Amino acid sequence: QGLLKFDPTVKYCPELSGIESFNFPRELFADIWTNGSLSHEQFDQVTTSGVYSLLDGGAVDVDGIGAMLSSGANEFFVLSAQSIGWQCHFDGGRSEVGCDDAMYQYPLFRESFAEARSQEESFTNLTISENAELLQFLRYGIVTATTIDSELFRIESDRSVTFHILIADSADNLTSVDKDLYKYGILCQEVVHTLTSDAN
C-alpha cells in the first residue's frame, strides 16, 4: 500500500445518500493516499462523516480479523464465506483442522479452538428460500474473545473483543463463484433476499 500509494479497500459513508455515499470517502482517501499524509482536517472529515472500510484480508487474514484488530477496533463485523475461517485464529486451530494454509499460522486469540466451536453452536441459522440456487446456508452470531500478542499484526494481548459474524456458504463456495460474475450476482441476491425475508 505504502509504495503504491493505493488503498485497496472500499469506503462507504452511511451518513450520505446515493452515489455520494461512495464517492465522498473514495475521493477523500484517494487524496490521503496520494499525498502520503493525513491532515487534521482530513482526520476530522473521516471521523465526523462515519466512513467505513470494507476489506478482504487475503490468504493470511482471510476474513480481515487481523486487520480489524490492528486498527484498534474492539467491536467489528465479519462477512465470511466459510465456517472454519474465523476459528483458525483461536488457540489450537491449526492442529484441530489439520491444515497448513497460511491463515492457520497466525493465532490471534487466547481462547481455544473448542471454545470457538462452542460459541458457533449458539449462532442463528437463517431460513433459506426453497428457490435458492447457490446459497446453502446463512448463519449469524456474536463471538467474544481475548487477544494475544501478534508481531505480524502488531496486536497487544489482553484486549477483550466482540465481533458479529455473518457466514454465507454456497453450493460452489465463494472462492469459485467469484470466477463467474453472473453466479456471484445470483448469490448476492439470494443473501439479500434471505436477510430481508419475513421468515427471518
Spell out the helices and strands N to C.
Answer: EHHEHEEHEHEEEHH
Note the overall shape.
Answer: globular
- Global structural class: alpha/beta
pLDDT < 50 stretches: none
Strand line-up of the largest beta sheet = 3-8-7-6
Strand residue percentage: 15-25%
Estimate the mean pLDDT confidence.
82
Q: Which value, in Å, is the CA radius of gyration?
A: 18 Å
Please tally the helical runs, counting DSSP H or I stretches of 4 or more residues: 7
Main sheet?
4 strands, mixed
List keywords for this structure.
200 residues, 8 strands, 22% strand, two-stranded antiparallel sheet, alpha/beta, four-stranded mixed beta sheet
Structure description:
It is globular and about 45 Å long. The protein is built from seven helices and eight strands, in the order βααβαββαβαβββαα. It has helices spanning about 20-35, 40-50, 65-70, 95, 115-120, 175, 180-195, and strands spanning about 10, 50-55, 75-80, 90, 110, 125, 135-145, 160-170. The mean pLDDT is about 80. The strands form three sheets. The chain has a four-stranded mixed sheet with strand order 3-8-7-6, sandwiched between helices. A two-stranded antiparallel ribbon has the order 1-2.
